[in-house]
Amino acid sequence: MTRIVAIANQKGGVGKTTTSINLAAALAEQGRRVLLIDLDPQGNATMGSGAAGTERGLYDVLLGEVEARHAIAPTACSYDMLAAHADLSGAELELAQAPQRERRLRQALVPLQGGYDYIYIDCPPALSLLTVNALVAADAVLIPMQCEYYALEGLTALLGTIRRVRAQLNPALTIEGLLRTMFDPRNSLALEVSDQLTRHFGGQLFQTIIPRNVRLAEAPSHGVPVIQYDRASRGAQAYLALAAEILAREPPPAAGDPPP
Fold first, then answer.
1. Any residues with CB less than 8 A from the CB of 237 and at least 6 apart, and which?
2. What are the two backbone dihedrals, phi and then psi, of residue 56, each rounded to the nearest 5 degrees?
3. What does residue 31 show for φ and ψ, rounded to 5 degrees?
């Protein structure tokens, strides 16, 4: 069964795209079939995956001009990509009066169900129609966040958005987990916020913590995930550990099913 996960936070600069790219790559390395969808008009996940030259993209899919399967492009990172181009920034205006505007992405992904083990959606850093489309399409939300004061305020706003989407559009939406990113253990505020998250969210908090790491910042300029750029780096090892944590949650295969 395909699991669709929106990687979202209404605050920018918290590691959504870094997490999208590197988690997709780490799971694909473990033999999972992964599709990464770039829903951010900035297209950073597209560039960081080396897929900026694709002809068709998510804009064409949302506007109904092409089926999703015809817009998917392979990458050198072992996962597939549904890319964002500059024209995606105009999609919200064009969809504003469209029927079922909040469900466009969900409808587009129906034919892909079963073709992938995981579909990750890299969301823009705002509560927009694009973000709502991701939350309506998703089974769950993975929330990357820095351990700082403003991140806690952004988390409160995002949880409110998730509750509203669950009440009105997608009652099955759950929280996949909260992921601490850009973590510096020398920072006392980071340690304090991390403790607060542990107390308040418990089992919803991933045990893996993503550290501040220069290799994570360098890898996108080369168009590859950090596990290809510098596998020995602390950033790469952290995302491999996150993938292992997610795989440990997978239900055991049914009798007679081949292993993934």
1. 231
2. -105, 155
3. 90, 5
Q: Which of 94-98, 158-162, 254-258 has the highest mean pLDDT?
A: 158-162
Most confident of 54-63, 84-93, 138-147, 179-188: 138-147
Read off the pTM.
0.94
Between the alpha carbon of residue 131 and those of residues 61, 76, 134, 165, the distances in Å are: 15, 27, 5, 11
- Helix (H/G/I), strand (E/B), else coil: 247: helix
Length of the chain: 260
Cβ–Cβ contacts within 10 Å for residue 260, how many?
Answer: 12
Residues 115 and 66 sit within 8 Å (Cβ to Cβ)? no
Integer angstrom CA distances of residue 251 from 10, 48, 254: 30, 31, 9
pLDDT digits (tens, 9 = 90+) for 94-128: 888 888 899 999 999 999 999 999 999 999 988 88
**5 pLDDT above the threshold of 90:** yes
Average pLDDT over residues 189-197: 88
Tokens of 181: 């990113």
Q: Compute the distance between CA of residue 243 and CA of residue 23 in angstroms, rounded to an integer.
A: 6
**Cα-based angle 6, 241, 25 (whole degrees, multiple of 5):** 55
d(CA 226, CA 239): 9
| 197, containing H or E segment | helix 188-201
DSSP string of 122-163, one letter each residue: E--SS-SHHHHHHHHH-SEEEEEEESSHHHHHHHHHHHHHHH
